[in-house]
Write a structure and sequence with these properties.
It catalyses: precorrin-2 + NAD(+) = sirohydrochlorin + NADH + 2 H(+). The chain is α/β, with parallel strands linked by helices and about 475 residues long. The chain folds into 4 domains: about 100 residues, Rossmann fold; about 60 residues; about 110 residues, Cobalt-precorrin-4 Transmethylase, domain 1; about 140 residues, Methyltransferase, Cobalt-precorrin-4 Transmethylase, Domain 2, CATH 3.30.950.10. It has 16 helices and 18 strands. The strands form 4 sheets. A 6-stranded mixed sheet has the order 13-14-17-15-16-18, with helices on both faces. A 5-stranded parallel sheet has the order 3-2-1-4-5. Strand 6 and strand 7 form a beta hairpin. Helix 6 runs parallel beside helix 7. The protein is elongated, with a radius of gyration of 31 Å.
Length: about 475
Amino acid sequence: MTQQDKQLSVFPAFFKVENEVAAVFGNGDEAYAKARLLKNTEARIVAYADAPEADYAAFLAANAIEQIAEPFEPSQVHGAKLVFAATGEGALDREIVAAARAARIPANAVDQPDYCDFYTPALVNRAPIAVAIGTEGVGPVLAQMIRADIDRLLPRSLGKLGRLANSYRRAVDRLVPRGAPRRLFWRDFFKGKVADHVEVDEISLARREATRLLKGVAADRVEGRVFLVGAGPGAEDLLTLRAHRLMMECDVIVYDALVPREVVDMGRRDAERIPVGKRKGCHSKSQDQINALLVELGHAGKRVVRLKSGDPLVFGRAGEEMAALRDAGIAYEIVPGVTSALAAAADFELPLTLRGVSSSLVFTTGHDLQGNVLPDWARLALSGATVAVYMGRTVAASVAERLMAGGLAEDTTVAVVENAGRRDSRLLHGTLKELPGLEARTELTGPVMVIIGDAVAGADFSRSEPLGAHVSAELETARI
């Protein structure tokens, strides 16, 4: 999907129409539908209908809507805030829109997109709360289906809750500091006991609970808090619900380069975003600088989401950040994420442990193969453990060579995944003997996970390419 595919051709907005004229032209079902939609608002509807159909006429009479039974002429649009051309006659509707545009009034012609300055949405009304669903005019039936789904999800009491919230807004503005404290107050207001009481129409109890909540928040001292959050392997739908909630509540998002922009953008729109690099060969900030930044933000009373690729406790250097926060007296929490090894295994439908084959699992980077003695994890691999090697492309040769030298069979199955868990993941498979060739695969620019072990043979290789195929292609090219 391109960036253009994600962009709307319209800007969603709500017109202020209280006590403003909304002019509806037409006699039939189209005009009737527009009038019914407008009746959800406090607009002053004026129906230009010289011969309304029976149902429409009854609706106009029952709701005391002003009706003007005159043929169209351009001056009728003057003074209107919105104009709806719904006569069912294409040429006449275009004439009405032309008159409205000449008077600089937004207009909408039914079933004529080129003569629509705005589209009418499918509406879920919980006044003063409204949800409008638009499809840019291409799918009215789809919009109605979505509206029905949302209508079922939203409690009927939502409007009452919104009005109650509005009655507390001035007190909250006066007593509760801006930023995280105020957002947390409103989260508890809309999701806690206040909402529960409103739902069963216990408005006095809801007010009592809201007042108690307000006094408690106003009395609290504003303290900073840092959340070390795992962003998962990079797919938006693998972010945990808790991680997303915290991103919507925080003041600042501090994120690594390996976290895709699509995930960062799931945070609160007006939260400050601070990139800190942290990818192989490209560190915009040192770890000490990142530690100091988190402490500084915490002392400033900010709620900070420190967003890390995968899981913060698996090669995420969270230990150093936790130590710095503890030493500074800054409160923090850990929010786990889906680590890349698990996402890579899922891409391959690969059992990391398998009864009778592998009963242990090792996470490693492979960089500890520099010494003369095989590290403990390598000895575990020789005994049948499944080994997941993070950042595995550049150490593939040393990993393979040392393991084979230690006695691991050269035909042991390996699985390789670039961008594990994402839509653009790339899967390769082969043997330990073929693994060193991975270092030459410079086209693999995303994070690469290598999984080695007898359990890997149980993976589904139908969507992956053989590691040896690349070597064969290079040899064929060399012959030519």
